[in-house]
Design goal:
Elements: H1 2-7, H2 29-36, H3 40-54, H4 66-79, H5 83-90, H6 94-110, H7 112-115, H8 123-133, E1 138-148, E2 167-174, E3 180-188, H9 193-198, H10 201-209, E4 216-218, E5 229-230, H11 239-265, H12 280-299, H13 321-333, H14 335-348
Parallel strand pairs: 1-4, 4-5
Antiparallel strand pairs: 1-2, 2-3
Length: 352
C-alpha cells in the first residue's frame, strides 16, 4: 500500500488528535498569550507557585489537576466570558469553573505582597517618573477606578456608584512602568476616592514617615493636598502654575494607562465583559489576582493587547465634584501641603 502511495506521489500522514482541553500541549506562546495572557513559561511557573494551595489530597472525587484549574481561571480573567463558555472550552462544568476561579484568585491574592509593593530603593522610580515630563521626586501616581459587579444580596445600595451601576471602588498606585505598587480593592462603589485614600494603609504609612519620605505621590483633584500627595491647582494663574499643572497631568497619566492596560488585558474587569458575578469578597480577590498577573506580565515583558484604552477607567468614576470640595477643605486645614506645593512650583516650574 505504501508503495502504491509513492507511485501516485501521495503519502498519507497519520491524523493527529489533540486534546483541546490541554492547550499547553499544542498552542505556541502567541496563542497562549492571546487566550490566557501569559506565555507557556509563565503559566508553568504559576502552576508551580499555586500547586500547594490547589493540589487536592487525592483524585478520589475526580479533582481537577492544578494545571487545569490555573488555565480555567486564566481563561476567565482574560475573556470575562460566561463561566459556562469557559467550562465548555476546557471540558468542565460551570460550577467547576466557579470553584477554579475562586481557588486560584484566593491563592494569588494571598501572595499579592510578593508582587505588589513599593521598592525599598525608590531612586529608580523617581528617575523613571522624572524622565516623563520633568516632575521631580514622584514615587507613584494614585487614582481610583470602578470594577462592575452584580448586585450583592446585602448592603446592595452601598455598591451603586455615581454612574448608576454596582461596583467596587479600587484604588491603585503605579510606577512609571505601569506596574502597580499598591492596590486597595474592598470598598463599595459609593465610596469616594478621598475616603478610600484616607482609610488605606499606605496613607497611614506615609503620614507616619514624616521627614523620612523620599518623595510624593501625584493624585487628581479628588484627593486632599498634603505634603506627600501633590494635586493640581484648581485655578492656575501664573505661567509657573500652568506649567506645574501640565507636567502634573502628563506624569499622572501613568495611572490611567495602568488601569486601562489592566482592564484590556483581563477583560473580566472591563465593562464590556459584563460584570463580576461573585460576592463582593470574592470579586475583591479576583481584582487583586488580576493585578498580580498584570505585574507578572510587566516583569516578564509580555506583549500588551492591541486595544489598550488609557481613559477606560473613567467610565466608572464620573466627576469628582464631592471629592473636589473635600480636597479644597483639606487645602484650608492642611497649610503644610499648600506650602510644599508652592515651594515646588517656585523652585522647579518658574521660568528664569
Amino acid at each position: 500500500m505504501l508503495a502504491i502511495a509513492h507511485e501516485h506521489g501521495r503519502i498519507h500522514k497519520p491524523r493527529v488528535f489533540r486534546d483541546r482541553t490541554q492547550p499547553l500541549d499544542y498552542m505556541d506562546d502567541d496563542e497562549l498569550i492571546s487566550r490566557y495572557r501569559l506565555p507557556r513559561e509563565c503559566i508553568m511557573e504559576l502552576i508551580e507557585l499555586l500547586a500547594n494551595d490547589l493540589q487536592r489530597p487525592s483524585m478520589r472525587s475526580n479533582a481537577l489537576p492544578v494545571s487545569t484549574q490555573v488555565l480555567v481561571a486564566l481563561r476567565f480573567y482574560a475573556t470575562g466570558s460566561m463561566q459556562r463558555v469557559t467550562g465548555d472550552v476546557h471540558g468542565v462544568s460551570q460550577s467547576s469553573v466557579s470553584r477554579c476561579v475562586t481557588a486560584v484568585s484566593t491563592s494569588l491574592s494571598g501572595k499579592a505582597s510578593k508582587y505588589i509593593h513599593f521598592p525599598t530603593d525608590q531612586r529608580t522610580v523617581i528617575h523613571d517618573f522624572h524622565s516623563i515630563a520633568g516632575f521631580p521626586n514622584v514615587v507613584g501616581c494614585v487614582d481610583g477606578t470602578h470594577i462592575p459587579i452584580s448586585a450583592p444580596h446585602t448592603n446592595e445600595n452601598t455598591y451603586v456608584c455615581r454612574k448608576g451601576f454596582h461596583s467596587i471602588n479600587v484604588q491603585g498606585i503605579c510606577d512609571a512602568k505601569l506596574r502597580f505598587l499598591n492596590v486597595v480593592a474592598k470598598y463599595p462603589g459609593s465610596s469616594h476616592d478621598s475616603f478610600v485614600w484616607r482609610n488605606s494603609a499606605i496613607y497611614q504609612f506615609m503620614t507616619q514617615q514624616g521627614s523620612q519620605r523620599q518623595g510624593w505621590l501625584l493624585g487628581d483633584s479628588g484627593y486632599p493636598l498634603s505634603p506627600f500627595l501633590m494635586t493640581p491647582l484648581t485655578n492656575p494663574t501664573t505661567p509657573a502654575e500652568v506649567l506645574y499643572n501640565r507636567k502634573h497631568s502628563q506624569t499622572r497619566n501613568t495611572i490611567e494607562r495602568s488601569f486601562g492596560l489592566l482592564k484590556m488585558r483581563f477583560r473580566c474587569l472591563h465593562r464590556t465583559g459584563g460584570c463580576l458575578q461573585s460576592p463582593p469578597s470574592t470579586c475583591a480577590k479576583i481584582i487583586t489576582a488580576c493585578t498580580v498577573l498584570h505585574n507578572i506580565c510587566i516583569d516578564k515583558s509580555v506583549p500588551q493587547p492591541d486595544d489598550v484604552d488609557d481613559e477606560d477607567h473613567h467610565d466608572g468614576d464620573g466627576d469628582h465634584s464631592h471629592d473636589t470640595a473635600t480636597a479644597h477643605n483639606n487645602d484650608d486645614s492642611n497649610n503644610s501641603g499648600g506650602r510644599v506645593r508652592q515651594r515646588l512650583i517656585e523652585r522647579r516650574f518658574t521660568c528664569s
